[in-house]
Each structure stands twice: as C-alpha cells, then as structure tokens.
Amino acid sequence: MKFQILQEKLKEGLSIIERVVSRSLTLPILNNVLIEAGKNFLCLSSTDLEIGIKWWALTKTEKEGSITVPSKLLSGFVGLLPNKKIEAGALKNDFFSIECEECKTKIKGLSAEEFPLIPKVSKEEFISVKSSEFCRNLAQIADIPALSATRPEISGIYFSFQKNQIISASTDSFRLGEKKMTPLKSSLLSPKTLIVPQKTIKEVINIFGIKETELKIYFSPNQIMFESLMQETDHPEVQLVSRLIEGSYPNYQEIIPKKFTTKLILNKEEFLAQLKQASLFSSKTGEIKLKREDSRVEILSQNTELGEHESFIYSKIEGEKFEISFNHRFLSDGISKTKSEDISLELNGDSGPGVVRSPGDDSYTYVVMPIKGN
Amino acid sequence: MTNQELWQAVLAQIQLNISQANFATWFKNTEISHQKEGRILVLVPNSFVKEWLQNKYNKNIFKILHDLDCNIREVEYQIGKAKIEPKKEEMIMPETDQLEFQEFKVNKDTNLNPRYTFDTFVVGPFNELPHAAAVAVSKKPGIVYNPLFIYGGVGLGKTHLIQSIGNEIDSAFKKNKVRYISSEKFTSEVVSSIKNQTIEQFKAKYRDIDTLIIDDVQFLAGREKTQEEFFHVFNILYEKNKQIILSSDRPPRAINSLTERLRSRFEGGMIADVSAPDLETRMAILKTKAQEKGVEFGEEIYQYIASVIKNNIRELEGALNRLVIYENLNHKKPDMEATQTLFKNILSSQNRVVTPRKIIQVVADFYDLKEREILNASRKKEIVRPRQIAMFLLRQELKSSFPSIGRKFDGKDHTTAIHSYKKILREVETDKKLEEEIVLIKEQILAS
C-alpha cells in the first residue's frame, strides 16, 4: 500500500472517525483505525461494534492495500505535522510508514484482516434532509433521554420517517421533547418508525452538523445509515452506520395535553435569567415555584441552608390562577431549546404536565412534569 | 444431536483456531435456532457479528457442521433478539416529589407496573400465606396453585402481591406471556368487542396468554355477558395449564351475583386471604417506607401512627407523606405533639362519614338488594337476613337506640330490633362465614 495525501485532509478524516474508537480490552483491534487505499480514494473506518464510521477522501494511490493503526496515536501524530503532503504506506510486519517533509515515522499496526466488517445497509429506500438544519433540529431534543437499564427503549430517540414529515421524540419519563421536520427528498415506500441510540444521534450532530450538504438516511431492519456525499464528486464522504434499539416506543402522543388551564406568554431571555437566579436558591430537589400575582408571574425558591429568593416577570396570562413547582433544570432545559423571542408555557393544574412551545410554531413541543405541590 | 449440542461442538472446535479475544467477541450469545432439511439457522446478537461470521468464519463453521452431520448443506445467519445484558445497578435517585409521566411506568406488553416486586413487599403473619403461595406460583406458573385467588380488604397489598407475581414470571420466564388487567378494563373490552363485533379477536388475544392476572374480580358481579366471556377465557387457559391469578376484596362465595360455575372455578385452586397487619408489622412497614423515602422519625412517632391507622397500608404511606411534608415546611422533625395534631383531622373525618343511610346502603349493595327492599316489611328469607345485619350494624356502629332503629325499618317494633341485634351477635360467634361478611361490610362502610 502506498498513497499521498495532504496533512490537513488526513487530519480532518481522523478527527471524524476517531469519535467512535472505543478503548476495548477484549478486542484490541477496536482501538485501531482501518486505513484502506483504493483506486482513487483513501478510506478510513472505525467502529465500537455499535456504531461504524467510514470516511473517504480523494488521494493519489500508488499501490492499493490496507492496514490498521492505533487511532489515538496516529491522530495525535498527524496533528503535529505541518500542513504539507504526506506519503504513507504499509511496510512488512504490519508497520505503517509516514513521511512528511523531514520526518520519517513507522507505526506498529495490526493486520486489516482482523478488523470488524461494518454492516451494509440497503440503499433501496432513503429520505434526505439538509444536514446542518437537521442536526440543529435534533439538538433541541437530543439531550433529554436518560440511560435506563430497565427501560432501554426510552434511552434512545424515537423517529417516525414519513413521506412528507419526520417526527422525532425523546423522554426520560419526567419530560418529553418532540420535534417535527420536513425532509428534502424521500423515496420511502412505507413509513419507518424506529429508535436510535442517543449516542448515535449525538455523533450525527457532531459530524454532520457543520456540513451544509444533503444528508441521506438509509434503513435496514436492524440498522440505520447516515451518509453525506463529497462536494467534488458523487462519492460518499462520510457514512455512519448504527444499530437500532429494539422494542416499541411508548405511545407518547397521549402525554401531550390537548388543553390547558392557564397559558403564559413570557420573554424567553428574561424568564431564563430569572430562573437561573432562582435556581441558586432552590432546594436539593431543584424545586422552584411559579405563582400568579395579578398580571405578573412570581418566581420563588427557598433553601433552608442558603436562603430565599423571589422575583417577578410580566407575562400575558390567560386562564386560571396557578401555583406550581418545577425542577428548574427541567424547565429551563426545555425553554432554552426554543428558537423564538417569546415562549408560551401552558399549565394543567399543579400536578398536570406543563407544555413549552414557541408561539406560532408547532414543530417543537416540550412537556415537563411538575414537582408535587405541598 | 440437539441444536444446542451441535453448536457447542462447533464452538469447541472453533476456539482452537482463533484467538481468545476474537472468540469472546464474535461467538458470545450465538446459538442455533433451528435446522430444517440441511439448513442451519444461527442466531447472532447484532449485525457486526452477522457480517463477521458470514464473511470470515462461515467456511470453518460449515466444515465443522458438515463433519458432524453430513446432511447439512447450508448455514444461514440471522439477527435474533439480543440477550439482555445483566442489568446494571440503577442509579438510586433521592426520592422527591418530581412527578413522572404515568403512562411510562407501566410495561406496555404486560400492563404491569415494574415497581411492584417481592423485594418491596413486607411479609408479616397476616400475609404469610398469600405471599408464600404467590412466590410458589411465580416459580412454577401454571403448575402449583391454579387459579390463585387472593382476597382481602382495601389497601392491604393485594395488587402489589399479584403484580409482583407477574413481574417475577415476566423476568424469569422470557417466553411466558403475562397480562395484567383490572376487571373494569376487562369488562369494557368485552363491551367494546361486542359493539364492534370483534369478539373473536378479543378471544384470540386472551387465548395465547400464559399468565393472566385479573384484579378486583368482585366488579364482575352482575355483569353476565362479561362473566360468560371470562368463563370461556378461564376454561381455555385452565385446560392448557396456564396460570390464572385473581384478586378480590372478598372470598368467591361472598361475591354476589357471580354465576355458580365461575364461583366454583375460583374456589378450585388456592384461596388465600390478606388480613390487616398487626402492630409490629405496621411499624415494620412504616420503617421500610421511611427508608425508601430517605427519611427518619422517632420510634414513638412510628408507634403512634401504627396504633391509629390499623386497617390500611396505603393510609400508612399517606401518613408518612404528611410527616415528610410537615418536616419540609417547618424545617424540623415532627414531635409527638405535632404528630397528634397532624392526624387528629384525618382520624375524626374517618369516623364522621358513617351514617345510618350509608350502613343500609352498603348492606343492600353487598347482598345485591335494593335499599327499598331492606326497609320494607317483606318477610322473604333472603331479605330478612340482610335486614337483621343492617339493624345489628346500626346498633353496634352508631349506638342507635332500638326504637329508632325500628322506626327506620317501616315502623317496626323496638323488640324486633333487639331480637335482630341479639340474633346476629350470637350467630357471629359460631358462624365463620357470617363473621367474614360482617367484617367486609364494615370495611366497605369505612372505605366508601
């Protein structure tokens, strides 16, 4: 194997595929990156046996071949090299050689034969989205799931891919976020509902969030694949393949209240700032209280050791009087993810779910359960 | 050779050819699911393993299998249900009043609430028998006590117990399909399937259940069509040795308007009653609950609560919550005096609700009569008895005077009232069944 590539390009590729390299003791080869020099492309792959990532770049290949090299070491080393042309190749006994300007390095690798095969996903049906926008949308709900050994299905993010709409949702059983999006193109024959591990979605956001290209999503019964194409030519640039979580997602639509007893319209930044102040004086459970005072909302918090705090915020209030407690983190998490200047907060009594939305935009819904009032 | 032996033979030989790390990674949780006409289907836990076995080891695996059995011509790999990894210890969150989405707490397939387990069930002399029966059933569903019928008063842990059985069976026997349903829900399913003419689907759904748990079967009383459907479901399951678990607030023979054939079936298995806990157990329960909530109160406080709340474990928990709230509001632990004032209100309100009307109403309900019938002068045997019981309870519970009792029942003489009172008092001592009935009626009077 022998190829030439620019340092910058190689560094970019390594930074992407490095994300899923696991520190595996049982199978040391998982610490490595698979380097394959094909005809005109260099391909880097890594996997932790749940997610697999492949990255391609155009290269000048003198001799085709493949090898695996410890990923941390390689990316650390390449990062220190100047942005010049690198000549790399495989030597005898699984050594990987790098030559760049004045330096000449040999890294001990492992044979490519042992590297796991990343599962293939059929390209029959796909749906495509605008990469950066899709990731920004997902980021609104990606932090919600909590790892749960007893309920693995809610530890992931729920997706329903339909011809003209993508619905995603996540929950940790105290709060729930739902985000609706529209696809760019779709060749779906039937709607697909599935649960994707939270880690996968976070990696998708990290890797594809900075790209302004089209992101294609492919499906197979047990896997999902995200793929972006190269700008220069019609060849995949990054492919991320992940397992899915088995099980059926709870029927979360039932949770989203259809009515409300009180509706507040609040200035987002101001409300968040006041919640933050109040949070410093909340009790161990993070409890803060909201209360109606005429046309204002009073925010109260109390901590036996630290003291008390109260503040007021003007609000449009519609409906009944109220007094309700929330975990400040749950509440501000949902509000900070909205994308509008004002937010609406709908309440359903002191022990019913509260709903956060952006007025005039029903693509994002955040439902949060209160803390039981005393 | 069985599938298991065959695969073990493959594993034994393969491990000689590959490294230990590879062997552990690629062959963990694999098995042969079935073979047919020379085709072997190997179940693998995920796509990575499938790809790997298919592309790297297939030749080896096939050769070994072929050597063992020359009829084998083909090996296929399929992603099976991933074995559940040993559960990690859940992070124990400090118990707060943070509310959850109720819908999520319940397991969708079985309808069980995973919170109910045997571990959190406090056993005392009052519930030893049902607990032992429940544990036995959960170990050998369908074999030991079938049906298992558990009865007892409100808030004594029947639901906890039967749901624990379900959860235990669900986790120990993966293939056992458990379904928990309240009899109310069952009734409404019957009604809607009749309305939508989907009674066949309804039957089919219950036919492949392996463990059927029905809560509060006393509500089936008087619903004939539902009873009939339930009777069929019961028979189908019973014949196939499927476990049936029932709970009720009274023994089968005390459930009125229950058809005879159902009653005898309920009594055919094991009947166990949960009675009210004794003082020591009530204290033990309080302490366990307090520990769950991460709070602690003085010994004499527990003793006081246990001594005033006698018949209901749920109320014990409620009482504890009151103490916790008091502590949060006043930033100090409640002392004896505070506790007494805290509970004065609940206790007095509990007594206040008993009225003569209520007693008559409950008695009439219990024996499935109309209030009017009891109050009339009818001398029918099935009415005379309940009327005497009503008179007895009016005297015993409310200390009403005999003449006033007589007046309530269509102007009967006070001697009739005295006679009724004495008669029941006397019979209670000898007639176990009557005693039980009266206890149940009293409970309902207090509960409703």
Automatic annotation (TrEMBL), chain A:
One of its GO terms (cellular component) is cytoplasm. Residues 129-251 form the DNA polymerase III beta sliding clamp central domain. Residues 254-371 form the DNA polymerase III beta sliding clamp C-terminal domain. GO terms for biological process: DNA strand elongation involved in DNA replication. Signal peptide: none annotated. CDD domains: beta_clamp (cd00140). InterPro entries: DNA_clamp_sf, DNA_polIII_beta, DNA_polIII_beta_C, DNA_polIII_beta_cen, DNA_polIII_beta_N. Gene3D superfamilies: 3.70.10.10, DNA Polymerase III, subunit A, domain 2. It is found in: Cytoplasm. It comes from the Bacteria. Residues 1-119 form the DNA polymerase III beta sliding clamp N-terminal domain. GO terms for molecular function: 3'-5' exonuclease activity; DNA binding; DNA-directed DNA polymerase activity. The keyword Nucleotidyltransferase applies. Keywords: Cytoplasm, DNA replication, DNA-binding, DNA-directed DNA polymerase, Nucleotidyltransferase, Transferase. NCBIfam families: dnan (TIGR00663). Belongs to the beta sliding clamp family. Forms a ring-shaped head-to-tail homodimer around DNA. Confers DNA tethering and processivity to DNA polymerases and other proteins. Acts as a clamp, forming a ring around DNA (a reaction catalyzed by the clamp-loading complex) which diffuses in an ATP-independent manner freely and bidirectionally along dsDNA. Initially characterized for its ability to contact the catalytic subunit of DNA polymerase III (Pol III), a complex, multichain enzyme responsible for most of the replicative synthesis in bacteria; Pol III exhibits 3'-5' exonuclease proofreading activity. This is Beta sliding clamp. It comes from Candidatus Nealsonbacteria bacterium RIFOXYB1_FULL_40_15.
Automatic annotation (TrEMBL), chain B:
Residues 1-91 are annotated as: Domain I, interacts with DnaA modulators. InterPro entries: AAA+_ATPase, Chromosome_initiator_DnaA, Chromosome_initiator_DnaA-like, DnaA_C, DnaA_dom, DnaA_N_dom, DnaA_N_sf, P-loop_NTPase. Residues 355-424 form the Chromosomal replication initiator DnaA C-terminal domain. CDD domains: AAA (cd00009), Bac_DnaA_C (cd06571). Belongs to the DnaA family. Plays an essential role in the initiation and regulation of chromosomal replication. ATP-DnaA binds to the origin of replication (oriC) to initiate formation of the DNA replication initiation complex once per cell cycle. Binds the DnaA box (a 9 base pair repeat at the origin) and separates the double-stranded (ds)DNA. Forms a right-handed helical filament on oriC DNA; dsDNA binds to the exterior of the filament while single-stranded (ss)DNA is stabiized in the filament's interior. This is Chromosomal replication initiator protein DnaA. It comes from Candidatus Nealsonbacteria bacterium RIFOXYB1_FULL_40_15.
